[in-house]
Amino acid sequence: MLKKLGFYIFAALFIFAGQFLVHQDLVSGTPPPIVQTTLTGENPMPRINKGPTVLYFWAEWCGICRSMQGSISNIMRDYPGLTVAVRSGDDGTLQNYLNEKQLNWPIVNDNNGNLGQRYGIRGVPAVFFINAAGEIVFTTVGYTSEWGMRIRLWLAGLS
Q1: Cis bond leading into 80, ω under 30°?
Q2: pTM here?
Q3: Contacts 24+ apart (CB under 8 A), 147-153
């Protein structure tokens, strides 16, 4: 019994330490400006200046990101938002991927990863939740359920 309890305590500490490490550098407060345009030539900042809104960093090669595509599409139907493709190829390759997967997202191509670095991400997927004042109030890294995102967006709308 004591061994089992020790294992669970160790596992919990390991998980919390991992979460701390992937979240420690994420930006909060005012989002850094995004100077690149979307693939359609749109200025992306108006999409995230006022919330509740979501800013989603993902990659075409990321399996977890693929599992979240349906949830992100559903969220983007109900809330404004922006997606950022990190190190996922040139604009043409990225557009082909979006067409193939039937994803109709406003997207900025961060092919060199510089934008992700300015936001402090160490891995994808990473989601930033922005309130009505334009401040990042919640972040998450890794798989997040649609309900988890909706709850954070609702809470962002209250702040």
Answers
A1: no
A2: 0.84
A3: 149/54, 149/71, 149/75, 150/75, 152/127, 153/51, 153/52, 153/53, 153/54, 153/75, 153/79, 153/129
List the structure tokens of 68.
């979240």
**Token match 């509740």: residue?**
52
> Tell me: the pLDDT tens digits for 85-137?
999 999 999 999 999 999 999 999 999 999 999 999 999 999 999 999 999 99
Distances (CA, A) of 113 to 22, 77, 142: 16, 27, 17
Residue 152 CA to residue 35 CA, distance in Å, equals 26
Alpha helices in 27-88 (DSSP H): 45-48, 63-78
**Cα–Cα distance list, 23 to 108, 127, 132, 142 (Å):** 22, 11, 23, 10
CA 151, CA 75: separation in Å to the nearest integer? 11
Question: Which 3 state secondary structure label does DSSP give 64?
Answer: helix
Residue with tokens 């599992």: 67
Q: What is the C-alpha separation between 132 and 90, in angstroms, rounded?
A: 33
